[in-house]
Write a structure and sequence with these properties.
Elements lengths: L2 E4 L5 H12 L3 E6 L2 H10 L5 E4 L5 H14 L4 E4 L17 H16 L5 E5 L26 H22 L4 E5 L17 H13 L11 E3 L3 E3 L8 H15 L5
Parallel strand pairs: 1-2, 1-4, 2-3, 4-5, 5-6, 6-7
Antiparallel strand pairs: 7-8
Helix pairs in contact: 1-6, 3-4, 4-5, 4-7, 5-7
Length: 258
Amino acid sequence: MARIFITGSSDGLGSIVAQRLVANGHSVVLHARNAQRAKDATAACPGAETVVTGDLSDVSETKGIAEQINKLGAFDCVIHNAGLYRGPFRKTSDGIPALAAVNTVAPFILTSLITRPKRLVFLSSEMHQSGSASLDDVLWTQRGEGKWSDNAAYCASKLHNVMFAKAFARRWPDIKSNALDPGWVPTKMGGSSAPGSVEAAVESYVMLAEGDEGLAKKSGKYFRPGKKQGRPQAAADDEKAQDRLLEICAEFVGLPSI
């Protein structure tokens, strides 16, 4: 039995994957943004071990989530599932758009502060192929709301997730760290007309969470639905860029470089 923590698991794929993992006999800790969402998460997956709460768009609350998780003990796998897709700039109390906070900063904080698990899964998207590899203004602190593009920000953040997976695979050779594109599936985020298969997405999540199959024993890779390995944007393999991304995030949130 594995012990697994899934961010953004009050609904959507996060909740579906949690239910599947519980059904497979694993212990799953859920995450929700607030108390009401925590009730929703528990109702959807009553077999979960517990649920932690905290807003991933807030740096201090994200650090608090890490504290909650560490108090629960060791985990075999952490799945960075939470993410924002489209929407306005939505400046956070930390001065950056919520999308950058949830998609880029939060996974960095949690990975930095949670006691190192055996496996890490960073949720990406095939849209990362269109993401800018520039690290000049990763968190939109210079461009600001006037130049905001939710599509550009999302694509770049999903590239960051692949870079994180590869950076931690390289720096922590004792763990398996991978990125996952779940595909465009019919969830609240994907919309009812999305053509992808939820089941194929879940298969890849579960494979990486459980870590038993041959492909799941790889590290620093990019996976797609149906337990298939994919090929990410070439820029994701730039080790200097990976290291710089980690430095930018560490400086912004006041944590030491990993």
